[in-house]
Specification:
Layout (H helix, E strand, L loop, with lengths): L7 E5 L6 H12 L2 E5 L17 H6 L2 E2 L12 H17 L4 E5 L2 H9 L9 H14 L1 H11 L1 H6 L5 H14 L3 H5 L12 E6 L2 H17 L2 H9 L7 H4 L4 H8 L5 H23 L5 E5 L6 H16 L1
Helix pairs in contact: 1-15, 3-4, 5-6, 5-8, 6-8, 10-14, 11-13, 13-14
């Protein structure tokens, strides 16, 4: 990456794909700084379960948007975009390149295209809809949604109560179908000149890496980390409490399952997250994909990414 013009590189991939190591190696080799695009790495003391960069890596490279809020606080996409934008300005002010890395698709979208218009919430509308869904079943509400917003209804499973209720709530608040808000991202305009590199692995390989990482997290002290968080004076926010890895261990600590069951549930939920990420990433345009082989050394992946960037810049 040339120093005459600071580069903006975004590295994306599903969880446990190896993107963090590539970002670190690229940053260290070019003097760049890293912006984390992860909705859970923002929380202080939530280290093991969020797979934060190790201490030695953070001593060698400047990382941004990590450890910015307490676990008792909520964090939004708007807060992320504000923090990331400030970090970009600081990094470029030091005449350094920016490497953003992560897998939280909504945050990536906001970084690339800005925030899209969003309807608010109204408990006086949502609560009766939720009560109806419980009493009458979600299929009844889904049929109503089909009448007012067939595009959204086609995308939402008739049993997905949460999304059905949200779509009806948006319509009642705004008088507009939720699909008209979502379509604002179908033909977006880039906010900055990002070069996007994606790491892509076969599903079986990705699942194996996820399972291995979860085992390492549990062996590395995840249970003690969750215990310490639960013992803090301020309770965990709903957002932090629901994080994969933390929610399942909380269930274990509450006696609702044993540790082996919790570990297997973390694996399963993380694999589901990876599936969701893959679906999101298919909608991203202008991504230079690197197909990673199972057991391919991280050094080789880094060299492939560096060569790709050089070829793009040529």
């Amino acid at each position: 990456m040339a120093n005459s013009k600071q580069k903006m590189v975004l590295i994306l991939g599903v969880t446990a794909s190896g993107k963090g190591r590539v970002a670190f190696d690229l940053a260290e080799s070019t003097g760049a700084e890293i912006i984390s695009i992860d909705s859970m790495k923002v929380y202080r003391r939530m280290d093991i379960g969020t797979a934060k960069p190790p201490k030695d890596a953070r001593e060698r490279i400047n990382y941004h948007v990590i450890d910015v809020v307490e676990p008792s606080e909520s964090f939004s996409v708007a807060a992320f975009l504000e923090a990331a934008s400030a970090a970009i300005e600081q990094i470029q002010g030091r005449a350094r390149s920016v490497i953003a890395v992560g897998g939280t698709a909504l945050y990536i979208k906001s970084l690339l295209y800005g925030l899209f218009e969003e309807a608010g919430t109204d408990e006086q509308i949502r609560t009766p809809l939720q009560a109806r869904a419980e009493a009458e079943g979600p299929a009844v509400l889904h049929r109503e949604l089909m009448q007012i917003d067939p595009a959204a209804a086609d995308r939402i499973n008739p049993n997905d109560t949460r999304r059905i209720v949200r779509a009806l709530e948006v319509y009642k608040i705004t008088g507009r179908p939720i699909s008209t808000f979502q379509n604002q991202w179908q033909t977006p305009q880039r906010q900055n000149d990002w070069t996007i590199i994606g790491l892509r692995r076969e599903k079986a390989d990705a699942a194996s890496r996820i399972n291995k990482r979860v085992r390492q997290m549990v062996a590395g002290g995840l249970v003690d980390e969750v215990k310490a968080l639960l013992n803090e004076e301020k309770p965990l926010s709903k957002q932090a409490r629901c994080a994969i890895g933390y929610a399942e261990i909380i269930e274990y600590l509450n006696g609702r399952m044993d540790l082996d069951e919790a570990t297997e549930l973390i694996k399963r939920n993380t694999r589901r997250l990876a599936k969701s990420q893959r679906t999101w990433f298919k909608t991203f345009r202008d991504v230079y994909w690197i197909d990673v082989e199972p057991d391919e050394p991280s050094e080789k992946i880094f060299e492939r990414a560096r060569t790709l960037l050089a070829d793009i810049s040529a």
